[in-house]
Specification:
The structure holds 2 protein chains of 2 kinds.
Chain A: H1 2-6, H2 8-26, H3 32-57, H4 65-82, H5 88-113, H6 118-137, H7 161-179, H8 182-192, H9 194-199, H10 204-230, H11 240-253, H12 258-278, H13 281-284, H14 287-301
Helix pairs in contact in A: 2-7, 3-7, 3-10, 3-11, 3-12, 4-5, 4-6, 4-10, 5-10, 8-10, 11-12
Chain B: H1 2-35, H2 42-60, H3 64-87, H4 95-113, E1 124-125, E2 134-137, E3 140-143, H5 144-166, H6 168-178, H7 180-185, H8 190-215, E4 218-219, H9 225-238, H10 243-263, H11 269-283
Antiparallel strand pairs in B: 1-4, 2-3
Helix pairs in contact in B: 1-5, 1-6, 1-8, 1-9, 1-10, 2-3, 2-8, 2-9, 3-8, 5-6, 5-8, 6-8, 9-10, 9-11, 10-11
The chains are: A mainly alpha, B mainly alpha.
């Protein structure tokens, strides 16, 4: 209860946001499509928050975040389809099991690769991402249901606005509390100077592992919500480009800022999906020409991220 | 006897693929040596090499040695421009920013070139500049394509060796990769040396691109991604920053890929390379030839 009391302001604010958005949906001001992308924005925010914990707060660069998102999505899709889950209350445990599966994957892979730093960590996480992609492409050999490179079809649609909103708010609050806890302090210490953190007695390896596992857990929950929103999964949805999406959101929102991630996630999804409505399909295909330019420009303009203060 | 012949045949195929990987891995390892940057765009320079060669052969039907010379010139220019435009302004920025820029450059090249008005997003057939002939040797066959690949790779490696170990520019390159600040105190022009490294690396990747196109005659704008990553892994395997390490790593990666496709399944060949990467990073992160570095 203390958890909710301490977060009363955020909960009040989010209840207000919920009422406004819900009434907009209820009175049919917007199309079904807008509803869908609002849900998708929540998922993207949750997953990017996971990357922000890993990269923005703890400073561990990851190019394989979409792999954990994909693991969560496939686990949730498999469980809900095989057990025929149709009830939202039965779905909530599945959501957390999917998150835990992604977290476990993150934990296991984190043990070897978190010894690395910077660019070697980047190539190792990129490698893991490609590895997961290969597994997903061949997943029909493990179980026919998973569909392999043909895609996973017929997933029950269970993600509702209420559920996604509540899960997102709850996990954002948990993340905020973690960041301002003792562990969060250690994470931020490691980001600013790993050697100095070790010298004052922080177990840097286990703290990095903890942040990585937690970040992957968030990605897994996001992936699970995604799977049961779109009812169709394809391995190509979880490749390096998706990881870069999340990375851009974290960088644009400011590394190490929760509200920044929320705004950036909303803007990003709105921008990409908005382009799809406004512009013809040929020009939307151009977006991957401009997004990299945006990324390069951003790095030249603010090499430390948009909001983060520069060091040295 | 049949099995031995099959194994020998796969060895030849592995050497063929390994030669291409070795050529790309050299660029990664040299750039990493001087700049401590994983140049993600390097795989795309390799792709660019294949495309430029495709245009030179199919549109202008130039003789093959002119194709090689012009392609190397173009990719070297591309490498030079990328370094000057994208990486140089970030010389003093954090390494991760540089890395993100490199990823951006790589994506930009891929998606810009995949536009219908530039190249094409589809697979296109690479024209054969000469007829393929196969020679039976002992228990296996070797094609003239393979012989040409071995000859050109060998020549390129020899020239690179002469450049790096026998010339002043090469000495400067090694000095910069050893310690940039001290090298600049010794009067070495750091910027010029970094540019030279990019030029040489990109030219080698261009050669790799042509050879890849001749050996596996289907090209696509995204063809650089996987060979790029694999070659980087080859460079890590041999010891990043070490030139002969990259060559050895390239051949090992090429061999393992071919052997896994031949004896297990071709769907696992990408997976195996990453298993190798994890093993290297776990057991000997400095690579085969790497020495322990006690720097933080």
């Amino acid at each position: 209860m203390k958890f909710f009391w301490e977060a009363r302001k955020v909960i009040l604010l989010s209840a207000l946001v919920y009422l406004v958005v819900k009434s907009v949906f209820y009175f049919g001001f917007v199309s079904q499509y807008i509803e869908q992308i609002t849900l998708y924005a929540l998922i993207v925010i949750l997953t990017s928050l996971g990357l922000n914990v890993i990269y923005g707060y703890t400073g561990q660069f990851s190019l394989g975040h979409a792999a954990f998102y994909g693991i969560g999505a496939y686990v949730s899709a498999y469980l809900t389809k095989v057990f025929g889950i149709e009830n939202v209350f039965a779905y909530i445990p599945v959501l957390f099991v999917s998150g835990a599966a992604a977290g476990l994957a993150g934990y296991l892979i984190g043990i070897p690769i978190l010894r690395l730093r910077d660019d070697f960590l980047a190539i190792a996480t990129l490698g893991f991402g490609t590895f997961v992609r290969v597994i997903l492409d061949n997943s029909d050999k493990l179980s026919e249901v998973l569909g392999g490179s043909r895609g996973f079809v017929g997933i029950p649609r269970l993600t509702t606005f209420e559920l996604a909103f509540m899960v997102a708010i709850f996990l954002i609050l948990v993340t905020r509390n973690l960041i301002f806890s003792r562990y969060g302090l250690f994470w931020r210490c490691i980001k600013s100077d790993e050697l100095a953190s070790a010298s004052i007695g922080i177990n840097t390896f286990s703290m990095k592992l903890m942040a990585f596992t937690y970040g992957c857990f968030l990605a897994g929950v996001g992936g699970a919500l995604y799977a049961n929103l779109y009812t169709f999964l394809h391995p190509s949805n979880f490749d390096i480009l998706k990881s870069i999406d999340f990375l851009i959101i974290v960088i644009v929102g400011g590394m190490g800022s929760i509200t920044g991630t929320i705004y950036a996630g909303l803007i990003w999804v709105g921008f990409i999906e908005g382009l799809r409505i406004v512009l013809p399909a040929e020009i939307v295909d151009l977006r991957w020409v401009f997004i990299p330019l945006l990324l390069i420009g951003l790095m030249m303009w603010k090499p430390y991220g948009l909001i983060t203060k520069s060091r040295r | 006897m049949e099995l031995l012949g099959y194994i020998l045949q796969q060895c030849i195929n592995g050497l063929q693929l390994g030669a291409v990987y070795a050529l790309i891995a050299l660029g990664y390892t040299m750039v990493y040596g001087v700049l401590r940057l994983i140049n993600f765009a390097h795989g795309d320079i390799f792709m660019l090499g294949a495309f430029i060669a495709y245009y030179l052969i199919s549109r202008f039907s130039l003789p093959i040695y002119v194709v090689f010379a012009l392609t190397m010139l173009c990719t070297a220019l591309a490498g030079y421009i990328i370094e000057k435009v994208a990486y140089k302004p970030l010389r003093n920025a954090p390494r991760i920013s540089l890395l993100i820029t490199a990823v951006g450059v790589s994506l930009f090249l891929e998606y810009f070139l995949s536009l219908k008005s530039v190249f094409t997003p589809n697979y296109i057939a690479f024209p054969r500049p000469f007829e393929v002939e196969a020679f039976d040797v002992f228990l296996f066959t070797v094609t003239n394509v393979q012989l040409i690949i071995f000859a050109i790779t060998g020549t390129s490696l020899g020239l690179l060796y002469l450049l790096v170990y026998k010339t002043k520019k090469g000495t400067a390159m090694r000095a910069v990769s050893y310690d940039q600040e001290i090298a600049s105190l010794m009067g070495i022009n750091i910027d010029a040396t970094i540019s030279l490294t990019f030029i040489v690396g990109a030219a080698l990747a261009g050669v790799g691109g042509i050879l890849y196109g001749i050996a596996y005659p289907q090209i696509n704008v995204f063809m650089g991604i996987m060979p790029g990553i694999k070659s980087f892994i080859a460079a890590v395997l041999g010891g990043i920053g070490i030139i002969h390490g990259a060559v050895l790593g390239g051949f090992i990666i090429g061999m393992s890929e071919v052997f896994v496709s031949a004896f297990l399944s071709s769907t696992f060949r990408d997976g195996v390379i990453f298993v190798i990467l994890f093993l290297v990073l776990l057991l000997k992160p400095t690579g085969i030839f790497g020495k322990r570095i006690d720097k933080v």
